[in-house]
Design a protein that fits this description.
- With about 400 residues, the chain is of the alpha/beta class.
- Helices cover about 35% and strands about 15% of the residues.
- The strands form three sheets. A seven-stranded mixed beta sheet has the order 4-10-9-8-7-5-6, sandwiched between helices. A four-stranded mixed beta sheet has the order 1-2-3-13. Strands 11-12-15-14 form a four-stranded antiparallel beta sheet, covered by helices on one side.
- Helix 2 runs antiparallel to helix 9, helix 3 packs parallel to helix 9 and helix 11 (about 345-355) packs across helix 12.
- The longest helix is centred in the last third of the chain and has 22 residues, at about 300-320.
- The two termini are about 40 Å apart.
- The model has no long low-confidence stretch (mean pLDDT about 95).
- The chain binds pyridoxal-5'-phosphate (PLP).
- Pyridoxal-5'-phosphate (PLP) binds next to helix 4.
């Protein structure tokens, strides 16, 4: 039997790339909005947006325009010079999150490194950092030390001074905070951990605890930032602000951009020579990032996320009511988790892929459905229809009652 184009390219990949990623058997070659096409011409509905990076979908005209314009103007000059796109991006962060100062790098992990280093400087000798079980902050040594669980396996010794407590358990956190504590780092809503939304009062209490002990509160907004949850930043659902916020994924609209925003009184501690990133905030990436925020504003996408997010949730709730395998649906905006009553959600992910829908599984039994912010109502319905078919393919039609 002749090989498909997908299969041929996958073979080439395997003989020349390191196998550190779990792979799905598809070669993607083209995207437009929330649609993708593979090397054999098959179309997919993209409901994962490249782990959230393609926040405005694929080939958004405003981002294509921004990258083209900047590519014709100025590429890389180094951070010893002032460049204008960085300023525009930082101003977006300040005006949309809180009055702070920004630093730019390439990834969420690097943003965590910058935040952790800054928190230790601010700690004035206090070095303890508290992070959350099931939290995720990246795979570099500092970020990994704040990321308990299987990601750490085989990589010790890790950076000393990190302790972990259960998420959404205020008593455990209160117990862990002491005179040695420099910072608490956590996601406002956990992503890799399974789209875990804390109780309403948890984050305000954490904020108060940090104020009481003069501990820096770092919110990792790498998943929840840049409009994904229907507000610009996840913490805005809880009426409080962090001292330092980390960003990645969606910040570059699909280009590698990470960054932090820190309160001015902390930010001043990162003096020349204390930290840096050669390509961080380079004109092309920064211009595209700034255009991501311009576009969210111009196209009123936060309101749109509210509408399509509600629609997606309703469709999933309807499916849950008819199908015994869905335990819970949780999340905010277009950051939704579907907890399945099974030990492994991967067969559902593969069946969905087969039917032309891209979703993801985390923590073994939780589906993550996170399309780009530009997804339409019609596409949400299509995605829900395909998911239903995928569940039927895995479970048999008998387990799904007809509508
Ligand atoms: C909440 C969170 N923080 C940080 C990271 C690390 O980001 P990156 O892969 O860009 O280093 C991730 C990656 O999934 C994440 O989900």
């Amino acid at each position: 039997m002749s090989q498909s184009v997908n299969q041929k390219i996958i073979k080439q990949h395997e003989s020349s790339l390191i196998g550190n990623y779990g792979k799905l058997p598809v070669v993607l070659v083209r995207g437009k909005g929330a649609q993708l096409w593979d090397a054999d011409g098959k179309e997919y509905m993209d409901c994962f947006a490249g782990f959230g990076g393609a926040i405005l979908g694929h080939a958004h005209p405003a981002l294509v325009e921004a990258i083209t314009r900047q590519a014709h103007t100025l590429w890389q000059v180094g951070n010893q010079f002032y460049t204008e796109p960085q300023i525009r991006l930082a101003e977006h962060l300040k005006s949309k999150a809180f009055e702070g100062r920004a630093f730019f790098c390439h990834s969420g992990a690097e943003a965590a490194e910058a935040a952790l280093k800054l928190a230790r400087l601010a700690g004035g000798g206090r070095t303890k950092i508290i992070s959350m079980l099931k939290g995720f902050h990246g795979r570099t040594m500092g970020a990994l030390s704040a990321t308990p669980g299987h990601a750490q396996a085989g990589f010790g010794p890790l950076v000393p001074g990190f302790v972990h407590v259960p998420f959404n358990d205020f008593a455990a956190l209160q117990e862990a905070v002491d005179d040695e504590t420099a910072a608490i780092i956590m996601e406002p809503i956990q992503g890799e951990g399974g789209i875990n939304v804390p109780g309403e009062s948890y984050l305000p209490r954490v904020r108060a605890l940090c104020d009481q002990y003069n501990v820096a509160l770092i919110f990792d907004e790498v998943w929840t930032g840049v409009g994904r949850t229907g507000k610009y930043f996840g913490h805005q659902h809880f009426g409080i602000k962090p001292d330092i916020m980390t960003l990645g994924k969606a910040l570059g609209g699909g280009l590698p951009v990470g960054g932090i925003l820190a309160k001015p009184e902390l930010a001043v501690l990162l003096k020349p020579g204390t930290h840096g990133c050669t390509l961080g905030g380079n004109p092309i990436c920064a211009a595209v990032s700034a255009a991501v925020f311009d576009t969210i504003e111009k196209e009123n996408l936060l309101a749109h996320v509210g509408q399509v997010g509600t629609l997606l949730r309703q469709r999933l709730e309807q499916l849950a009511a008819r199908c015994g395998i869905i335990r819970q649906i949780r999340g905010a905006g277009l950051f939704l988790g579907v907890e399945l009553d099974t030990s492994d959600a991967m067969p559902v992910v593969l069946a969905a892929l087969e039917q032309g829908l891209i979703i993801n599984a985390t923590q073994k039994n939780i589906l993550r459905i996170c399309p780009s912010l530009i997804v339409t109502s019609e596409q949400v319905h299509r995605a829900a229809d395909i998911l239903e078919k995928a569940l039927e393919a895995c479970l048999g039609t008998s387990r799904i009652a007809t509508a």
